[in-house]
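Friendly challenge for the regulars: who can give me the structure tokens for this chain first? No prize, just bragging rights.
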Amino acid sequence: MMRFRVLLLALATSAAVSSAASADEAGLSFWLPGQQGSFAATPGTPGWSWTTVYYHTSVDAGADQAFPRGGKGRVSLGLDGRGDLVLFGPSYTFTTPLLGAQLSLSLLTWGGRNSASVDVTLTGPRGRTINGTKSEDFTGFGDLIPQATLKWNHGVNNFMTYVVGDIPSGAYDPDRLANMGIGHGAIDWGGGYTYFNPATGTEASIVAGLTYNFEYPDTDYKSGIDGHIDWGISQFLNEHFFVGAAGYYFQQLTGDSGDGATLGDFKGRVAGIGPQMGYLFPVSDTMQGAFSAKAYWEFAAENRPEGWNMWVGFVLSPKALKKE
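First reply, four minutes later:
Bragging rights claimed.
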């Protein structure tokens, strides 16, 4: 009986849900699917910019798994997570080209509130069961996220490459269900393409990347390598307003590992699709604002929570220079 209670506690601990950027140990990931999309590869205007994004997520999941190494018992696990987060930070776009491209550097972080709950039922080899339930709420700040991008423009065709990392400086405790920091470092790199024709107002973008996760120092758990694709299409209805659709596909390519991966090398998967819109407007003689909103409904999830999420963003940046 004591052995089952220890396993129950371990499951409740490892099932922590961090809606901001949790790792695959919790069924989520450092890369938030949907964070890229329309206009991802279009160059910006040189100078300082500020980004603020409100992110809401609502997910749940259930799983039924046999004990490892061919055991006769089973683990039934239910997860539920909610997050209301604000991501924010500055970026700087350089005037002087690098390798013929426009270089931008940014540093983001986030803060907000997460809630998480887990229900666990353990069934032993002789049919005896143990049930456990735990719920938590947490408010705090997350990790630091530095990013660098290079963008090339050739008429209506735009190309980009990026690298983004996680510096695990946010609030994280392996004994909490709800966290803000992810508890380990990560690095993600990839590239993208945007077709944008200003004459017709038609746009289409796709971004693909890979995430390498470093080991959790507190749990000896190492999430696998993740692959992801974000896409978006949009059409300007006038000079300021556009509408469209966006989506993503996320697939964990290699299994989890480490001493903490006691239940196996699960590989997560999820897809999402939904509408989007945006509005561009002048703020002053030298600055402009860009408001955007998009929502995703998820499907095809495997070893990962599934639900819906919403992004509402505002970017304050220098106005584009008028050509004479």
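The chain has one domain: 2-318. The CA atoms of residues 86 and 120 lie 31 Å apart. Your move, everyone else.
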